[in-house]
Amino acid sequence: MPPHAAPSAPTPAAPPRVTVRLPQPAAGTPHGPAWRAYLDLAAAMVIVGSSVAAARFVSLTLPSHLVQELRFLVAACIAVPLLYRREGGLPRLPARDWGVLFLQAAAGALLFNVLLLAGVARLDAAAAGVVTSTTPAVMVLASLVLLRERPGPRTLAGIACCVAGVLVLRLAPVPGAAGGDAALSLTASGVDGVGLLLVLGAVCCETLFLLLGRTLRTPVSPLAASTVCTLFGAVQFLPLALPQAHRVAELDVTGWLLVGYYGAVITVAAYIFWFRGVARVSAGTAGAFTAVLPVSALAFSALLLGEPVGWAHLAGVACVLCGIWCVTRR
What we know:
The chain contains twelve helices and no strands. By secondary structure, the protein is mainly alpha-helical. Helix 1 (31-61) crosses helix 3 (95-120), helix 4 crosses helix 7 and helix 5 (135-146) runs antiparallel to helix 6. The relative contact order is 0.21.
């Protein structure tokens, strides 16, 4: 007799027992989303690393605020139709979440770019890299204070490797420098104090941008979050861009190509990659991936600007990769 069959009268029949079996994930499924998140975060930071060379070029040769405004307008022209086609329009969010996205755009779109452009105009690439290399550490510190996240020993070890790697990367002697050596300290390299503070402020704004996305109470797709931040960025940069509007004629073919790259790749693609990745990992893990930024900046500087790369740079890259392995290893 089955265990759920009714006993003999006069006891009333018991209701049949229903066993619900939840579907089991296929082999490898738990690892799939995590690795996709890691690839998204790495791709975002590679793209952002390319923006360092672009920012240096813009800050010295073009009306920087006008270029940023055009960048967000181009990005909006791409993101808005794409959002309406795929998701039917802007998300319906409570006022609090709209405020979070506005603050996120103010930190990552407005203040980060304003401070970075002003900073790289006063610092060389190596000095700016020393400051940006603190991003993983600042990210973890902020996640401890703001999100109460406590990274484990392996995450801390991975972040330490990342910080060590980017410091080696940026403090390394430059091949071919005068006397076969280069200054290894901020004082010896003649870093402008104001420029140092500007880039440090950009790092803090980038950290705030990265963490604010984790405070949204309503789920928002990466494309929707990217589109909203792009629209807010265009609105926030407008007051700074209007005084430079008469200089639009200074943009040649190279300038317009740079605007297009800024809008389509650095803004739309990088935002989507980052929002999609950061939603599936902890802040400490996301912070470790920000160490890819200076590595990417080094590669783009070598490829596009012809800057020399030495053994110490390669050692720094190895440290960064080791740190990411520590964080992502299961």
